[in-house]
Automatic annotation (TrEMBL):
The keyword Transmembrane applies. Keywords: Membrane, Transmembrane, Transmembrane helix. It comes from Peptoniphilus porci. The lineage of its organism: Bacteria, Bacillati, Bacillota, Tissierellia, Tissierellales. The chain crosses the membrane at residues 6-25, 32-58, 64-83, 95-112, 118-134, 146-167, 198-217, 224-242, 248-279, 347-372, 384-404, 410-429. It is a multi-pass membrane protein. Residues 440-460 are annotated as: Disordered. The keyword Coiled coil does not apply. PANTHER family: LIPOPOLYSACCHARIDE BIOSYNTHESIS PROTEIN PA4999-RELATED, TEICHURONIC ACID BIOSYNTHESIS PROTEIN TUAE. This is Polymerase. Residues 231-363 form the O-antigen ligase-related domain.
Length: 460
């Protein structure tokens, strides 16, 4: 009765609020408020509506709206707990996340520019909030699979937009390419991410998950659809011409093969040779330039890394403060002719921002997540969790590889994607455990019933 009363009060207040909006601000604001309140009511009714909608929409909406959507999901879990007396849990395996969260909060407070650190703290808080909402709201294999399918559908739309750009043409910014050594490259696609390297980071995180789902799917019709979608994601990665993205996806592929079937390594050589034979020459040239010492993009990164090491050395324990703004301000004190935003290396950037202690716990977060994924999902007897776990493991390996030449915790949408992938891992682990215990209980019950039947037969 109390819950019902709260619902009625909320609806009455909403109606009153909408009436005031319409009377004073007009139809446009009324419609916006109506859509917002309707969405709020739907999420309160079933938070999975908000989770699924956020997973699909966040690549396409403004970063501020994406922040609000993801951050609010954790709030709604707590709100539902208050309204419906639902329980929420914080698993023991999330301890590395909690430690990392504490470190970035502390680093924000002690930052040389706390206001600049707030931006990155809020973005990561939104990602962690969404992870918390996922682990407490998605409770069955079916719901998890539906969430992942929604995420992959969104990624397919992103990739299709990128492929279209390759044929329609898009503006090329000069800093995206060494034009002296790549005169035949006219297009690098970026879809909705405004930068091809950022699009590549997104695809490196998502594509291995698509591979894992494709690998598990038994229906030939569904397998064809998933395989075709995965192929589009891979084509889009190629079209970004992001060498870091290619290295990341190659490492992800290697990790997936090692986890699923090592015999597939025998196909590696012919696939590579065949790929080099059919790929456009400009793509082959980009691949061969990965370690080039004359490529201006490579030299630019090396110079940044050298200066970043000096920043780390001078701020070894606590760092300069969480987020790109404190790093940027500090970096430009060392050299004023290189106005950069990040170190183009996640590990150097993290060490510079939050110090050596923070860096150690960041690495522990990544390694612990890989360990939990491997021991609980990849080793699962359930093929769905096994192949999904292999895809998720490969996703983390891929982005860690890409992180050698880019900072993947810089752009809001990649920060969100990173935490969503971790959210899938921890949610899948929780569901796999429930499914395993349920199966064990059912088998135990069957055994007891069989023994009981045998005893009754003997007695008779």
């Amino acid at each position: 009765m109390v819950v019902k009363s709260k619902k009625i009060n909320f609806i009455l207040l909403s109606a009153l609020f909408l009436t005031i909006i319409y009377y004073f601000l007009g139809t446009k604001f009324f419609l916006a408020a109506f859509i917002g309140i309707s969405g709020l009511l739907l999420v309160i009714y079933d938070i999975k509506i908000g989770l699924f909608a956020s997973a699909f929409l966040y690549p396409f909406v403004p970063d501020a709206l994406g922040l609000i959507m993801l951050l609010s999901m954790g709030f709604f879990v707590l709100l539902r707990a208050a309204l419906y007396k639902e329980k929420f849990t914080v698993g023991a395996r999330t301890v590395p996340i909690a430690i990392f969260a504490f470190i970035i909060v502390f680093s924000t407070i002690t930052s040389i520019d706390p206001s600049g650190s707030i931006r990155d703290l809020a973005l990561n808080a939104a990602g962690i909030s969404f992870l918390f909402a996922m682990t407490n709201s998605i409770k069955t294999k079916g719901e998890l699979n539906a969430f992942i399918s929604t995420l992959l559908l969104s990624a397919l739309v992103v990739a299709l937009l990128g492929v279209m750009q390759y044929f329609t043409g898009v503006e090329m910014r000069p800093e995206w390419l060494d034009t002296e050594n790549n005169t035949d490259i006219a297009v690098r696609v970026y879809s909705v991410f405004f930068n091809p390297n950022i699009l590549a980071e997104y695809l490196v995180l998502i594509t291995p998950i698509a591979v894992g789902i494709t690998w598990h799917t038994k229906s030939m019709k569904k397998k064809f659809l998933f395989a075709a979608s995965t192929g589009i994601l891979l084509i889009c990665i190629v079209m970004t011409l992001s060498r870091g993205g290619w290295v990341g996806i190659a490492l992800a592929a290697l990790a997936f093969v090692l986890l699923v079937d090592r015999r597939l390594l025998l196909l590696g050589v012919p696939i590579i040779l065949g790929g080099l034979a059919v790929l456009p020459q400009k793509v082959v040239d980009r691949i061969t330039s990965i370690g080039s010492t004359v490529d201006t993009s490579n030299l630019y990164r090396i110079k940044i890394w050298q200066i970043t090491k000096e920043v780390i050395r001078d701020n070894l324990v606590a760092g300069v403060g969480f987020g790109y703004m404190p790093f940027k301000e500090t970096f430009e004190k060392y050299i004023r002719t290189m106005p950069i935003y990040h170190a183009h290396n996640t590990y150097l950037e993290i060490a510079a921002e939050i110090g050596i202690v923070g860096f150690i716990f960041f690495m522990l977060l990544l390694l612990a997540t890989l360990k939990y994924d491997y021991t609980n999902l990849v080793k699962s007897e359930d093929k769905y969790f096994k192949y999904l776990g292999a895809g998720l493991f490969a996703s983390i390996i891929g982005i860690m590889g890409h992180g050698l030449v880019e900072h993947f915790l810089y752009i809001p949408r990649i920060i969100f994607t990173f935490w969503i992938v971790l959210g899938i891992i921890f949610t899948a682990i929780k569901i796999e455990k429930i499914e395993r215990e349920k199966e064990f209980t059912e088998k135990s019950t069957e055994t007891i019933e069989e023994n009981k039947t045998e005893r009754e037969a003997i007695t008779e």
